[in-house]
Each structure stands twice: as C-alpha cells, then as structure tokens.
Amino acid sequence: MKIPNFLRKSTVQFLLYSLAFYLVIYFLNQLNVLSGYPLLIIEISLIYVILATSLNLINGFTGQFSIGHMGFAAVGAYVSGTLTTLIWKLSVDQPIYQTLPLFVIALIVGGIAAALIGFLIGLPTLRLRGDYLAIVTLGFGEIIRTIINNIDYVGGPRGLLGIPQLSNFTLISIFTFLTLYVLRGIVFSSHGRAFISVREDEVASELVGIHTTKYKVLAFTIGAFFAGIAGGLLCHLIQIAHPTQFGFLPSFMVLVIVYLGGMGSLTGSVIAAFLLTILEKYLLPLGLQMLSAWTQPTFGFQVGVEWRMVIYALLLIIMMLFRPEGIMGMKEARFMIPEEH
Amino acid sequence: MLGIFFPSIPVKGGDFVDLSTIFNFQQLVNGLQLGAIYALIALGYTMVYGIIRLINFAHGDFYMIGAYSIYFFGVYFLAGHTGIHPIFVFIMAVIISMAAGALIAVLANQIAYKPLRYRPRLSALITAVGVSMFLEYLFSSLPFIGPSYLAFPNDAVIPRTEYLLGGVHLNNYQIIDLGVAILLMAFLTWFVRGTMTGKAMRAVSLDKDASKLMGIDIEKIITITFLIGGAFAGVAGLLAGITYPRINPYMGILPGLKAFVAAVLGGIGIIPGAMLGAFLLGIAEVFATSFNSLLGEGIAFAILILVLIFRPQGLLGEKTAEKV
Predict the structure, then answer these.
(1) Would residue B8 count as lying in a domain?
(2) Cα B73 from Cα B157, distance rounded (Å)
(3) Do A65 and B308 touch (CB under 8 A)?
(4) Of the candidates A136, A143, A313, which has its C-beta nearest B130's C-beta?
C-alpha cells in the first residue's frame, strides 16, 4: 500500500519538530520568560527564515545571483499594508474572525504581486549571466525604492504608517513552517533537480532537455512570492513600511544569511537566520556597549551600534575567504529531506 | 540650440513644456560634465572586468575615498596653508586623490580578491559586495567622518569662476572636469596601446593561461590594473567633489552602478566603449532629469535592461558565440 505523502517518516518528523519549536516558544512566552523584546527577535528571525530560504532557492539551488531580494519584500509589504490599512481600514480592536481572513488574503495578494514582479525580473535572465543579473536585481531594488518614494498615497518617503499589528507569533510560525514545507517539497522533487542542474551546468542541462529559462523564471517567481509574504508579515509586525527598510542593506543581510548558512542548504539558511538575527539585534549591540564602556574612558572614543554593520561586512569577507561553503555546505538535516518513493 | 527642432508639447494640467528648455546646449554641457565623471569610474570598472572578469562592486567606494581624501586635505592642510599657488594646489589635490584611490584599490585586491582568484567567480563577486559595504560602513561609523553629509572644500581647492558664452552658462569646474577626464583618457589609451605593460594587459584580458606561458606576471598586471582603475576612481571623486560639493560615505553607490551601466552600454572590457557609454549616459541622464526627476533616477537602469535585451555585447562590442 502506498503511504500518503504527509504520513512519511521525514514529513512527520518535520511537522513534529515544527510543532515542538512552536510549543516551546509559546509556553516560554506564556510563562513570561520570553515576552517582549526576545519574542520579537524570534519573530523577526522567523521572517528572515522565509526571506533567506526563498532567496536560497534563487541563489543557492538555481545558481542565479539576485541581490535585490528585499525589493520583492517591499512589494509584498506595501501591497498588503495598503490593503489592510488604507482600503479595508482594519484595526486590532476588531474581532479576530473579521481581521484574520482579510489579513491572510492581503498577505497572499502581496505575495502574488511580488511574484508577478519576480516573473518580470526573471524574464530578462533569459539573456543575462550571473554578474549582469546581479546589477539588474540591484537596480530593480533601487527602482522600487524610487517609485515608492514618489507615491504619495502610500506615504512616499515618510513610509506607510499606522499599520495594524495583525502579525503574531502563531501566524508567523505557521507561514514560516508552510514556506519550509513547500520549499523542501520543491527542492527535492524532479523540479528541484532541474533547478540544481541549471546551477551546475546550463548548457548540459539544456542538452538533457531541461527548459533552463523556464526554471530560472520559475525560481524567481517562487522566491519573490515568499519574499512578498515575508514583507507583509514584517510590516504588520513592526507596524510601519518604510522605503529604507527595503534598500540595499537589508537585501545584503539576507544575502549574508544565505551564504553563511550554505548555498543550497535550507537547514543552513534556517540556522544562519536565527544566528545572525540574534547576533545583530542582541549580541552585537550588547558587545559594542561593553566595548564602549572600556574605550570611552580609556580613549574617549565611543563604539556605537552602527559598528555592527562593519562587523557584518567583515564577517562576510572572512567567511568567503576561509569557509566559502558556509556553515552547512550543501548538507541538509535529515528531517528536511523527504523520502524517496 | 537644438530647441528649434522641437515644438512645445502639452503636459498634464494644461501646461505646456517647451522642449527647448530640455534639449539645449546648456544641458548638453552639463551632460558632458557628468559623463566625464562617469567615464573615469567606468574605465576602472571595465579594465578590472576585462582582466579578471569581476564586477568590482567596491569601485564606487574607491571614488568615495578619493573625495574624502581631498576633504581631509582641504580641512587639515589647506586651511592652515593659504597662499599656495592655485594651480599647485590643484595638482596636489589630483595626486592625493589618485594615490588614495589607488592605495585602497590595490589593498582590496591583495587582501580580498587575490585569495579567491581560482575559486568560482561568484565568490569574488560576493566578496566585492562585502568590501563595498565594509568601506561604506567603516566610513560612516568612524567618529570623525560620520554618516551625514559634509561640505566639500571646493573653493579652497579651486575657486569657482563663471563665464557666459553665447547665452550658455559655463564655469571652470566644467572645463576642469572635461579637461582632466580627456587628459587621463588620452594617457590611458597611450598606456594600453603604446607600452609593454599595456600590451601585457591586453594579452591577459585576451587569454590568461596563454599570457602566463609567454612569461607575463599575471598578478603584477592585475595589480597595475587595480592601481590605474583606483587612481581614476579617486580623481573622479575629486572632480565630483568640486562639482557637487556634498559628500557622504554612500556617495559612491549610485555613480558606481551608473558607471557600470555605462561600461555595459559601450561594451564591457572595451576601453573606448566605456568612454563612449559614459558620455552617452551622462547626457541621457541630464536630459531625462530636466524632463522629470523620477525618470532621471531610473533611466540608467532602463538603458541597462534595454542594452542587455537588444545588444548585450554593447555598442562597440563584437558578438561572440558562447563557449561550451
């Protein structure tokens, strides 16, 4: 008898681990161990997991070099934020059975809008090799930012303010685990093999009958869809969507996560997303504060929080020089690999 | 001047825009001036790409460092030493900015790019992004620089004088920008065509392995390429500083990208192509900006996408079949 897909061992394991993670954080929160800022860091880490794994599909598995991933997140954030804030005028005071369906619809519409843009960006990849593509995606991110800056309806350079805080830990977890589930399904399917073959050798994969352009565009569309959802979740968590949130710097941070975790390893992206978010939001500010406590009286020189970006960039250079394959290389945790039939 | 060929066209709101205010000789001069700065940056981009096939994202930051070197030269040296002959001051500024740009470029090559020479090309590209971010954030974090705009000491370096020539406003900065750019381009053309080192550079860009067999020290040639590219970017920073006298650590990002677009427009790896592409892009950008500022910001990337779709080898490039 054929076992249904969702009952296979690795799938059950994946679901159990996800549930365990969710419940542990949930109860720690209920017991007030993790409330407030630590919980926010975990929520942001989960959103970065979505961003990093979806970028990994484009950069790691398909071998393209997209460096404007936050541009897609911006589309998702602004579309869903416009729907919930400006058109439907939702607020957290309304009962949850009214706001939740509309919010989920808004997120998915945002994802679809981002996917549409991803499709349009993916089309010229037909003609572009790695490094040209990098410039186009970077330029695209800048164009998106310029356009948003000039649309007064969504606030222009002031940003979209007063977004209701509809994201919560449960919802973010559900979307993150769904993303991971879908991506691991894609990556280890025959389509996933096609993505990997495009990365390994484009000409050879064309010769064995793989439509390379189709797969490149597909990777961009899927990656952009999830980035759009992540953008929607993010702006409904921190209650603002601002053009600078989606500039080159945040895109670069997602890139660092993907490369630190390992190109072509979803597990690596998950680990690196948590590691780097906690490092950036918690450990580095703390460390720099302690360093300042020493340098301020000794040298009269304060090491501010802005130095964390310098450390970030150094981390990327050092990693590329000494461990270019990242934490996980191309390996996956067992429960991230669906079993063969 | 060109305006006589264009009638007035209606725009939204019932106003008429006189196209002669956009396509005229004044804007052409402004475009050439902007193009001269892009050209100096684009040359370094295209040379580095031609030799090691790396898009050096940090190139725009060499330009930023060139501008900052003159800022410190102006603030800490010129302020205390008045009465030096202005031509001498300007020559000193050119030398300092070139040295600063060249130093950083050679250091970046030695520390970050050289160990990755025989790794996949993407690793070097990511490292280049890392170097770029490192330089930008280092400069914006250092307490004596900071992230905000600083006023460039352009009048201390060279005082501004205005001329009115047949209804066109000219100033000496425009003449200097164009003059320095053309002089350096002539030097580079001579260097690449007329010297043994230039010949070696062309050989390396054509075939690295074969030129190694001919006894060319490839690493030395790459270092020289970074040196020249960095020096040109540094002097571009000086010219941009005196022309648009507000500098900040992120000033290199957009000109760097646009210079890359210029290099692609002319045909990447081709030196005359970079010059042509840069001047065309500068003129197009000034015309587009005077039409609509949003259009001006986006036109470089629109040009990039159009070039990549319709003529990926660039204006001066020859079509090559992809090797398997």
Answers:
(1) no
(2) 9
(3) no
(4) A313
In a domain, B202, yes or no: yes
Inside any domain, residue A341: no
Is a pLDDT exceeding 60 seen at residue B131?
yes
Indicate the residue type of A170. Answer: T
Domain CATH for A155: 1.10.3470
Provide the token pair at A129. Answer: 């090799």
Domain enclosing residue B231, as ranges: 42-258
Q: Cβ distance B28 to B283 under 8 Å?
A: yes
Q: Is A6's pLDDT higher than 80? A: no
- Residue A307 in contact with partner chain B when CB distance is under 8 A: yes
Give me the amino acid identity at B24: N
- The number of folded domains in chain A is 1
* Predicted local confidence at residue A129, as pLDDT: 66
Range of the domain at A222: 5-336
- Domain count of chain B? 1
Instruction: Residue A325: name the closest of A264, A279, A281, A277 by CA.
Output: A264
Phi, psi (rounded to 5 degrees) for B10: -75, 145
- ipTM for the predicted complex comes to 0.79
CA–CA dist A264, A270 (Å, integer): 12
| Tokens 């003059």, located at residue | B179
Q: What is the pTM of this model?
A: 0.84
Mutual angle of helices B253-266 and B293-310, in 10-degree steps? 40
Inspect the interface and report whether the beta carbons of B137 and A310 lie closer than 8 Å.
Answer: yes
**Beta bridge partner(s), residue B17:** B9
Q: Å from A61 to nearest chain B CA? A: 14
Question: Of A160, A177, A209, which is closest to residue A17 (Cα–Cα)?
Answer: A177
Whether B103 is in a domain gets the answer yes
pLDDT in tens, A277-319: 988 888 788 888 888 888 777 777 777 777 888 888 888 888 8
Q: At what angle do helices B25-52 and B196-206 cross, to 10 degrees?
A: 70
Instruction: Check if the beta carbon of residue B274 is closer than 8 Å to that of residue B43.
Output: yes
Residue B202 is encoded by which pair of tokens? Answer: 């062309």
How are the residues of chain B apportioned to helix, strand and coil, as percentages rounded to the nearest 5?
70, 5, 25
| pLDDT tier, B320 (very low <50, low <70, confident <90, very high otherwise) | low
Residue B293 lies in a domain: no
